[in-house]
Known about the structure:
With 491 residues, this protein is an alpha+beta fold. The protein has helices spanning 15-21, 28-46, 105-115, 124-127, 138-144, 146-151, 223-238, 249-259, 284-287, 331-348, 360-363, 372-375, 426-429, 461-471, 478-489, and strands spanning 57-60, 63-68, 154-158, 166-172, 183-187, 263-269, 273-274, 351-354, 367-370, 406-411, 417-420. 48% of the residues are buried. Residues 346, 351, 353, 356, 359, 370, 372, 374-376, 390, 392, 394, 438, 440-441, 443, 446, 452-454, 464-465, 468, 484, 488 line the site of one heme C.
Amino acid sequence: MHTDNSWGHTVMFQHSTIRSAVCQRLTAAAVAFLLAGVGSTHAQQANRQPATASPLITTDPSGLLQTNAPGGSIDSSNPFFQSFGSNGRSCNSCHRQAQGWSITPDELRQRFTKTNGNDPIFALVDGAVSPVADVSSVYARRIAYAMLLSRGVVRIGMPIPANAEFRLTKVDDPYGYASARELSLFRRPLPSTNLIWDTAVMWDGRETAAPFKPPMDAGIDHEDLLESLASQARDAILGHEQAGAAPGAAIIDQIVDFETHLFTAQLSDQDAGQLNHSNGMGGANILAQQRFWIGINDVLGNDPTAEPFDENAMRLFDDWNDPNAQFNHDPGSRARAAVARGQQLFNTLPIAITGVGGLNDATGQAVIHGTCSTCHDSPNIGNHSVALPINIGIADASRRTPDMPLYTLTNYSTGQTVQTTDPGLALRTGKWADIGKFKGPILRGVAARAPYFHNGSAAALGDVVDFYNTRFNINITAQQKHDLVAFLSAL
Length: 491
Ligand code: HEC
Ligand code: HEC
């Protein structure tokens, strides 16, 4: 039997060490071993037992997900796992290791069934479709928590700001609650991992203390980020956890310290095998070494090193390029070639970017001839390397489904109206031009945390590709879609 026992360890490898240490293939025995470990972690967490070393590797729909954490274990005694408020929730209610430190509808449905809808995540305040929904029976709770159970989204309540350039002129809320005093916005929990590369905190950046400025090299000089995350943690405890008062700075610092030392990425793929096999650069240990600073490889010229933008932002699987893949009889090699083609498409497939608020208007270019990496430009990470709130149209009325509220906003000075399911940044700035703007999130470990986009409107990675295909008329082929999904699944 040939198992790789180093998987469970968290060591800050040098690249050369990784390359020589990772030539093992994933064996059935190894998977069985890992699965046994994963099962016991969940049981331990459910019983709220004291801190024990927990495996850093969990299963997800396309293979195994790895989290790199200090000391080689997840410190479950950290206040991240502790409840501070009245509803029994902790950060871990909505940020779970196995779901890429977010939540998924599948796991939530299991939690609902196990507890008859009484797990702390099922709380009226923001778990339900409205804070006054009927939750008096299991049946009522199934309806009240339908948005968590179907899309894994949490209800964020936010008012139209006093200084707004617009007013709310019509509300179509299927749950009969939203008003100008509190819009209901259904949003996916962003992962509480890989945070040292965040350039904006929250989908609308509302917890970003001040625009992060270079150098802010990740892990060296990132006071602005730590301050933002501390404020975010306090607000989460007061809001999601319904605490009467936030805990002191020492506790908040422990939470921030915990979450900023986690790195998460896909480790192996059921088709392509181990993602650091044959000089692949997948997995969380290599990710933890990723070079980054605010503005790195920025397409808009914000890189403080003044180096020109390189559209090849993703370089994880360069060594897997295999032009003769179709003649290869080994399915693993063929799958690796598909991942490499997907990476190439991400970096180079031409996209005529039009009508993106915050990008086309900001640069004065009606058409930007770009690629996926124009917006996802942070090397091997996939967010934008400076805060770039943009409107790609996810919240547009044209994409509204009947389970989402629809808001009509009217501009005070021009009388123009716009319909949206989520005004995004505009609820923070009050600016008409900011309606529908959100950040592009970090893309690592994305396979473990479907559905996608701020409102969970794309059920799977194929639906993400379909969105871009229709939004920008790319004319993507079935093969290209397959390859892009293979690549995204390997992140
Ligand atoms: C009820 C579910 C819930 C709980 C409990 C919760 N969160 Fe979140 N978290 C969310 C949602 C939803 C978002 C995204 C909201 C938005 O952007 O408007 C989020 C966003 C975040 C982000 C932003 C990540 C980024 O890249 O911008 C961090 C960090 C975070 N949460 C950490 C925490 C911490 C720490 C706690 C505990 C103190 C916590 N969360 C508790 C649901 C939750
Ligand atoms: C014009 C800029 C832009 C381009 C081009 C672009 N993206 Fe995005 N991407 C974004 C933004 C902004 C979001 C978040 C939008 C939201 O949720 O409202 C996003 C979200 C995503 C997500 C969802 C992540 C999550 O955690 O929910 C994936 C996956 C993704 N993009 C992949 C791609 C791929 C693949 C391409 C190329 C086919 C691409 N993007 C092209 C800006 C862009």
